[in-house]
Amino acid sequence: MSPDLLLDPQLKYWVLLPISFVMVLVGILRANVTQLMSGGPKLTPFKKFREQSFLGRVGAFRANNSVLTEQEFQQRQEYFIATLNTDHFYSEPISEDDKPANPFTDPSTNDAMMNMMKGNLMNYIPQTLIMGWINYFFAGFVIMKLPFPLTDSFKQMLQNGVATPDLNVRYVSSISWYFVNLLGLRPIYTILLQDSSAVDALMQQQSQTQQVPTIGGPGGPKVDKVYKAEAENLQVVDHKSIFDGIVERVLEAN
């Protein structure tokens, strides 16, 4: 049997709650500072917005063409295929050579790199300071016991910094409580910040999730390749109107 510990009730006031409070406070400050440093949302240029909007129209037609008649479907299909094979909606002219452009000459690349550096600074500096503070003042503390049983596979996650291999897995160390708060404070941030976008940005900084390359952006596919792929997809779309046989179906339902 694993030995049981008699925990001092004052641990929750002097260790558990201070760690949680500091992490919540630092998270809110980091969200506000990040929002101030971002400088507000940037407007999408009209040509780039038109380029992406046309792709959205093509996708909506491909997914919802069943509400059209056969004639309407053919007219729209011919229009979209013909337009996708031209450069009418391109935001920028496409170069003839296949040599990839230097991403550092694109202003959006520099902005993305600068925003990534700011996000890394706003992530690593507070986490380093909090981790150092916990290691200096609360290293080796066992601060709570979970009210439900766990398997031994959770021992390394919940008892980090406590060199007691025979201790019951339900006990949680101070350093492990820091990591639990780091990954599980999203509901608290949602209640306090009242802004889902700020919460998503904050959690993205903590998890270091990379953004998906956009069309025509740094590392993303070229717009002409995307347009031609959409034109090929439209050529094989099968049309089946929801109004075909509607009279018979209504009569059968009644």
Task: Name its key features.
254 residues; mainly alpha; 10 helices
Structural class estimated from helices and strands: mainly alpha
User: Whole-number average pLDDT?
Assistant: 81
- The N- to C-terminal Cα distance equals 69 Å
Radius of gyration over all CA atoms, rounded: 28 Å
Strand order of the largest sheet: 1-2
Strand runs, count: 2
Note down, in words, how this protein is organized:
- The chain is mainly α and 254 residues long.
- The chain has a domain at 1-42 and 121-214.
- It is 59% helix and 3% strand.
- Helix 1 (11-38) runs antiparallel to helix 4 (107-137), helix 2 packs parallel to helix 9 (223-235) and helix 3 (70-84) runs antiparallel to helix 9 (223-235).
- The longest helix has 31 residues, at 107-137.
- It is elongated and about 80 Å long.
- It starts with 10 loop residues before the first helix and ends with a helix.
Map the helices and strands.
Elements: H1 11-38, H2 46-64, H3 70-84, H4 107-137, E1 142-145, H5 155-158, E2 171-173, H6 174-184, H7 186-193, H8 196-207, H9 223-235, H10 246-253
Antiparallel strand pairs: 1-2
GO biological process, one term: protein folding in endoplasmic reticulum
Protein name: ER membrane protein complex subunit 3
Membrane topology: Multi-pass membrane protein
Question: How would you briefly describe this protein structure?
Answer:
Belongs to the EMC3 family. The protein has about 250 residues and is mostly helical.
